[in-house]
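Support reply, case 0932

Customer input (verbatim):
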Amino acid sequence: MSQRSDSKPGQPPLLQMRDATVIKEGRRILEGLSLEIREGEHTAILGPNGAGKSSFIRLITREDYPLASVNGAPPLLLFGQDLWNVFELRSQLGIISADLQANFLERTLPGQTRGVDVVLSGFFASYGLFWHQEVTGKMRHLAQKALALMEAEHLAEAFIETMSTGEARRILIARALVHDPKALILDEPTTGLDLLARGRFLKTIQKIAQHGQTIILVTHRVEEIFPEIDRVILLNHGRIIHDGRKRQVLTSRRLSAMFGAPIRVRQSRGYYTAASVE
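Our regenerated output:
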């Protein structure tokens, strides 16, 4: 996996939204989102439950589609393109979520899917490997490199159902990394992890950010926003309410207004914590 620098002048943004609106069952789920995220710009999308974060991810992954714009300009561009083959897009954007992990456990039989099989399945966008899929030597080499980067080589022969939540999450990131994607989108990535596992997992994500992949973190936890992330977008009721540098956005006043309750924010060595005020 190659080291990647920030985007060059003239290079299209990784993600560009222009007044993107999504309507479902007659209700506006996302309202007029306009933003750009460039390659190398690690960004957190922060908001409470029901803010529209999952809809934001479904929009990026082409599971939901925005309304057509009045002036005919595409409301969503990924790497400068409006139209994508979904399988090609998955090689550019790695998506990691608790839902993906749950789907693997639901769709694979016990004793049949090892860690390395999960990683290799990233080449086929499938849940595990199947007899008709041809795995090449190059694929196995890239899978081993991804496992090594995630410090998960010892999990290669373990079956996914025997892994802890944190171990399985590492395997799924390795699965995303086999394509050397330009960005990883992390959807509430520490869901189900205990305090120690959460800390180890975030250290791993920091390592990936330093390695070159752009990180887009979608979360309701301020504590997940690690030092390499400097841009924070606050999302609530399907709208962007603030977008800027971390130190300007993660304030007690702004978060209290967003969560609708008194919040105290503290910062230490690049890490932020938020707690309700009794």
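We compared this against your earlier run and they match. Two observations from our side: The two ends are 47 Å apart (CA to CA). The chain has two domains: 1-79+182-278, 100-180. Please reopen the case if you see a mismatch on your end.
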